Amino acid sequence: MSKQREEWSSKLGFIMASAGAAIGIGAIWKFPYVAGQFGGGAFLLLFIIFTLFIGLPMLISEFIIGRSVNKEAVSAYDTLAPKSPWRITGRLGVIGCFLLLTFYSVVGGWITIYTAMGLTGQIISDDANYGKMFEQIISQPFTILLGTFVFILLNVIVLSFGIKKGIERANNVLMPLLFIFFIILVVRAVTLEGASEGLSFFFSFNFSDFNAEGVLYALGQSFFSLAVGFSCMVTYSSYLSKQESLPTSAASVTGMNIIVSILAGMAIFPVVYAFSLEPTAGPGLLFIVLPNVFSQMAFGSLFLTLFLLLFLFATLTSSFSQFEIIISAIEKDKKRSRPKVVVIIGLLTFIACIPSSLSSGVLAHVDIFGKSIFDATDYLVSNILLPIGCLLIAVFISFRMDKALVKSEFQRGNTLSLKWFKLWKFLMRYIIPIIIIIVFIFSL
């Protein structure tokens, strides 16, 4: 067996790697500011519903597709539906992940810059204006391009050596540490004066300001935060042993993702209200709020730096899965060396990132349907391509893939009763496609 097709060393390793792919900027960075824009608790409630009844079944579906043939996304669909239009599903995943990386890597660059500043003690100070600091950083072309380049370089270095030993082992240590530091952050945030207003905003179900766009964002967030829709998890599950249970693994990843999203909201919104910040502040919310929290703590600079390092790792583990679907699709014929493929993809990604990197600076005047280049790319990926990808996967596994193979993969390695398979099958065949189509149409 080739190195690319090695199995994860354990079920825990697979869960942690999958959780690392899912728990990144989707749960930690994007969820708080999108929830802030769409009513807090109302968004949270819909996000949890979508994640459990749409995201989780979708995650199970991608796991089934990948492990059933033990091949990366493009080859998996080619094998399961040879010479048919369904082959486009895997290719859409490759294209979608590339577009996703063009703005994801920019945020990774922001985190890289902040981590470097934290290590050198340049963030927390008595008279710092963290909002202004963030605006200045992302508007400086050289700084933001350098941060993006370094973030992509970190991906290139790790992925050039493969993903099993480095990523799996590191995830087993650093993902639990991320949870621990999140809890510390939450405890400090909720004890701030005025924190109760933030908690009320986050846990109160006020739908007065909610609209069809908010529903679409909640659906897109459930896909984005679980890394489903672009078949990243098809590739990851292709490394999994046949003895492991796919539904229970998916449930573990989903549960961890929901918990992290809730912790992110509990860490952010109390501080937003305690410091009279705006909950609809957008992508910069986390970079403004975190320094405010840690500035109120003993050894705050140290804790902020440690958290940024862990946040950077969580962001990297997500980008690894996005890069991996592209790398494995190009490398599948074994005619090109992996390091060379990784370097080329890294360079192309950096070039493609330049417009989004500069959209808060020299290209701030560029307007695409009322959005910046960064926001327009985010919207295209999260709210259009991801739902389309999920719809194709739902229809594929329900109507095109061999039914006996699907059932066999669902039931392998577990003692779940048949009713759970029937419920999953019902959701994938009749409920999820209809919901995706309805929400998509109403958002247009």
* Rg on CA atoms, Å: 21 Å
- In N-to-C order, the SSE pattern is HHHHHHHHHHHHHHHHHH
The helix count comes to: 18
Helix content: over 70%
Corresponding CATH architecture: Up-down Bundle
Instruction: Report the β-strand fraction as a percent range.
Output: under 5%
- Ends distance: 47 Å
> Can you tell me the number of structural domains?
1
- Overall CATH class: Mainly Alpha
Q: Would you tell me the overall average pLDDT? A: 84
How many strand elements?
A: 0
Unreliable runs, pLDDT <50, ≥5 residues?
A: none
- What structural class results from the helix and strand content? mainly alpha
Describe the main β-sheet briefly.
none
Which fold name fills CATH's third level, the topology? Amino acid/polyamine transporter I
The outline comes out as globular
